[in-house]
Amino acid sequence: MVTKIVCLMASLLIAASVLLAAIGFLGFALYLALLAHLTPPIAALVTAAAAVLAALLIALIGRLIARRAKPRTPKLGDSGSLAIELGKILGGEFSNRAAAHPYSTMLTALLSGFMLGASPDLRHILRDLVRKL
Questions:
Q1: What is the pLDDT of residues 22-38, one digit of tens each?
Q2: Residues 36, 40: Cα–Cα separation, whole Å
Q3: Residues in the chain with pLDDT < 50?
Q4: Residue 16, number of CB atoms within 10 A of its CB
Q5: Residues 98/105, Cβ–Cβ less than 8 Å
Q6: Phi–psi pair at 69, nearest 5 degrees
Q7: Domain extent listing, the chain
Q8: Is pTM, for the whole model, over 0.85?
């Protein structure tokens, strides 16, 4: 599975590089075509303006597509959605309590850090608990 993803990412990176080179050659071809009608500095300015205009057009199209796309909201039937909602509720509650009692929060964090630093057994228990999760 990982090999398949790595191969896909490598092929996409190579394709993007080739596309970038092709866009460069198109810009150069536009410059050469304009040289027949304009002076070299003016042809370079027109080519640069065309590139900037194309970039702005691509950004505008991307913004319109992103605006129309609906955000995916997890349904209650999804496997992880209940955990997500519970995490949001508990995280907000812990944040509110910590903001309401900053000195107690700091003292609790300091004491728990001291206990974990002083007791190797407690560190190993906590490490094993985190690994099981």
A1: 999 999 999 999 999 99
A2: 9
A3: none
A4: 10
A5: yes
A6: -70, 135
A7: 2-68, 83-132
A8: no
